Amino acid sequence: MKRLLPVLLTSCFVVAACGGCAAQAAEKEGEVVRLWPEGSIEIPDNAGPEKSTVGPKGDGTLIRLTNVTNPTLTVYRPKGTNTGAAVVICPGGGYGILAYDLEGTEVADWLNALGATGIVLKYRVPRQRDAAFQDAQRAVSLVRSRAAEWGIDPKRIGILGFSAGGHLAARVSTNHKERAYKPVDAADEVSCRPDFTILIYPAYLAAAEATGLDEAGLPVTAETPKTFIAIASGDKFTTGALYYMLALKRAKVSAELHVFGFGGHGCGLRKTDASVTTWPDHCARWLRDLKILPP
Fold this sequence. Notes:
Elements: E1 14-16, H1 21-27, E2 31-34, E3 51-57, E4 60-66, E5 72-76, E6 86-90, E7 98-99, H2 101-113, E8 117-122, H3 129-145, H4 147-150, E9 157-162, H5 164-174, E10 196-200, E11 226-232, H6 238-250, E12 255-260, H7 279-289
Helix pairs in contact: 3-5
């Protein structure tokens, strides 16, 4: 069942004046965990209240969050069989907004159906790439530190990102030896390296002028996690995905890349006639091949 909100749709967007009430309604089904201890991160002086905007997206709707200054994790545990696998989910949105249902809560539903715990990361936006990176590093460590409590295998914790969230997931996967922040508690003593990585139509992987991979920001090594990548051939970010795959191959990292002939950018899990929307089936099979999920 999709975690969608009951909304009043008009021809224009509906802005939730309560500062995030739409997201809060969606989060009631999962356990919401504050990512950072209070007072441990700076809030920009010009930060306004958190906002939720609900508008049309194809045949459905899309929840957009912005002005996020209090990052959280929302933990959705499978109601049936729990395989012990878990995935931190990074919604996309160009680092300006978070596509919270399309690339967040709906993905948690899909992972739950596979027997995995889905953990939606609400990271800081807008225009806070380095802060978002800190949030993602902290998220992996925090999940691993609480693995026993949440019924998770600490050696099967992955990260999944869409678009800008894919860039964020790749950045965490290639920059896990050093933290981008000073440790704040015992959770930061635990590794922030994901055990596997899933990048769905990832953005911003290429260097300037698309001349190659952004190697300074994404230093792929043999210690980069096993990776699954899916993107459409017509996506403007396809070149970066190809460069990332080549870097993984050179580093001898196990990886799988799907470049689909049809489809655009930003489909999430929602099925259409476009072949790119079949990526969840291929990804689930990949997770089983790696024995992250049982056969």
